[in-house]
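Risk register update: the risk that structure generation would not scale has been downgraded. Supporting records follow, first protein first.
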Amino acid sequence: MENVTVFILLGLSENKHIEVLCFVLFLVCYIAIWVGNVLVMISITFTQLTEQPMYFFLNYLSLSDLCYTSTVTPKLLTDLLAEEKIISYNNCMTQLFVLHFLGAIEIFILTAMAFDRYVAICRPLHYTTIMNRQRCNEILAVCCTGGFLHSASQSLLITFLSFCDYNEIDHYFCDVYPLLKLACSDTYRIDLFVIVDSGLVALVTFVILMISYILILHTIRVYPAESRSKALSTCSYHVTIMVLFFVPVLFIYIRPNITLPEDKVFALFYTIIAPMFNPLIYTLRNTEMKNAMKKICYHRIPLQWKHIP
């Protein structure tokens, strides 16, 4: 009994007209993701916003969004117009690792941003001491390390499985649960590990984030109206992104190894929709970001690299 060398992705739909429509829609979304996130990164990197911890983390959130969606979307766009949606075993395992690595980093960066807002609002006198640049770099390193450990553990377990005759993945990318369904060896322990490593970790993180924002709301109730409005506006951006990202993730990973038709739709939220809306959510009502973008667009600030001797 030989192990498979290629997988066939069943994709989003068997209807060609729907696939063409999806291609146009997701192509527009992918272009918007690139334009929006690159603009955010440039606006932060080449202005004084990069000195603020919130924008320091937002910069890396945009980078992880861009890399994360690029792990899936180009292949999805190609497959929507292809007769056969084939991915090699090695490419499938690579996509699985990178997807969970970047996804976990994004979850941890969102947690770091919530911690930053908590310190800024609940402990303002100690903010500059706690959230100095060295501390921000350390938090970012922890986010990357956590992402690697999460992804490496799951990917390593998947590589030990045997995939026999049936090689059709009922999804548009390689993910843990669709792959476990194809395995011809016992996956019970791996199923439990995935629930803990993905679902439970995401759930605990989400609960911690919500508690932090509840504490923030409790703290700002005594603030003056203007300060309270600004704090609420900033936190509302974060909560919106959290809901867009965490709810679909929890729907898919918190349950046992059961794949549902709705999984593909929910996966679109955290692979395409959330990365597209992140730049919009953080810039539409954010005066600092809008001013930074205007300076970049109208060349009103010298780029930092010009000052390098």
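Supporting record for the second protein:
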Amino acid sequence: MDSEIAFDYSPLLKIYKSGRIERLMGETAVPPSLTPENGVISKDVVYSPDDNLSARVYLPEKAADTDEKLPLLVYFHGGGFIIETAFSPTYHNFLTAAVSASDCIAVSVDYRRAPEHPLPISFDDSWTSLKWVFTHIAGSGPESWFNKHADFSKVFLAGDSAGANIAHHMAMRAAKEKLSPELSDSGIFGIILVHPYFWSKTPVDDKETTDAAVRSKIEAIWMMASPNNKDGVDDPWLNVVQSDSVDISGLGCGKVLVLVAEKDALVRQGWGYKAKLEKHGWKGKVELVESEGEEHVFHLTRPDCENALEAMKKFAGFIKGEM
């Protein structure tokens, strides 16, 4: 029975009739390092002891022996809410490079994944992590690097794919619920959405793919992550752009950077997100950058290619205040 496959979602995972789940990628973990990597040191912290949830904190090594305050980046990894972790080589390497380029302190959040933990658990864990981060706003939280180095007037949320979806929803929630009693606003300065995972049952515009196989694959991944929702891919967690009932004018930050890839099936959702912010009363500034000829999350698989280096330059520049 344990070898009989119930659902085959290769190359992501397989689900066996016994209930066993075999993830086919993103399961390798690398340790943090207090020996500088690309000028960056890292360590792991527990943000939710009750659920045994951790995150990885990154700091420029040159700042360690100073009292320098740095922008704070909170990063949510991608993987369709199903695969990958904050501790995989893919995300460890990306965060190390991002912190080096941006001269910031960062925390990469690990959250529970579907299908064992269906949505909205990933969102709930991410909110718990944000609230934990903001316990350091007065300089007296449990993590010394945040107390000493985090500039809470410059907090950025970011993520790729499903992580970008999470970053958006965290900024929306932060506008409605205080992350800390110390705050007079959302506490979020800006967000970066990299190849954001938004979708809808019908194409968002006349340029979005109509390929039935592509659309059904995206839908299948969502339904594996959120099997209990009644609206399918029109669920408001996912249909952020096209749905008239989803109001994003209250997004809780003043700056947004959207990065998209030309050959990514999700590219038009990114363009639509920018247009919706501009047309529906949000008061901030949004910029979109498209990487020509590139596929979904190409920057993670080919971080040294010219377009990935250019995307990192935009990512870092946004955090450094160059937008």
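The mean pLDDT is 96. On this basis the risk owner (M.S.) recommends closing the item.
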